[in-house]
Specification:
This protein has 141 residues and is an alpha+beta fold. The protein is 36% helix and 41% strand. The protein has five helices and six strands. A six-stranded mixed sheet has the order 2-1-6-5-4-3. Helix 1 runs antiparallel to helix 2. The longest helix has 14 residues.
């Protein structure tokens, strides 16, 4: 039996929090997925396809990020909107942010995602602290 759009998004979050990326890859994401994450940090930008988004998710987990769903609503036949709390600690860096995400579902899979960040500065600051760039000589080598 196919999942409802709400169940699909909920499955993604549950799978993320238990590092079950195979379920996300095989049961949740469309092959032509586009995931848009705003910001000015190493993980921001557009990710294309399940593998890029899963690589992004794996980096979130390496930074000890947990995601708690707060509210999940269906809008029409193909849209899900949710509010979630992303939180974690990595070394001295701490993140605790409320965010909203818009999902477009096509053919029973998540196909397009736009994340909206409540405190972009705090999110940018956290990820720059966690994913520091190497010194310029090392980057040129």
């Amino acid at each position: 039996m196919a999942l409802t759009n709400l169940e699909l998004v909920q499955t993604m979050y549950e799978s993320f929090n238990r590092d079950d990326f195979d379920t996300i890859r095989n049961e949740v994401f469309s092959q032509d997925l586009v995931w848009n994450l705003p910001g000015h940090h190493p993980l921001s930008g557009t990710k294309n396809g399940p593998e890029e988004v899963i690589a992004f998710f794996q980096q979130l987990r390496k930074a000890n990020i947990q995601v708690d769903l707060i509210k999940l609503e269906a809008w029409g036949e193909s849209t899900v909107v949710e509010v979630h709390r992303g939180h974690g600690r990595s070394g001295d860096a701490v993140l605790d942010a409320l965010n909203c995400t818009h999902y477009e579902v096509r053919d029973g899979k998540i196909a397009e995602v736009q994340v909206y960040i409540s405190d972009q500065h705090a999110v940018d600051q956290f990820f720059w602290a966690v994913y520091d760039l190497a010194p310029i000589p090392a980057r040129l080598g």
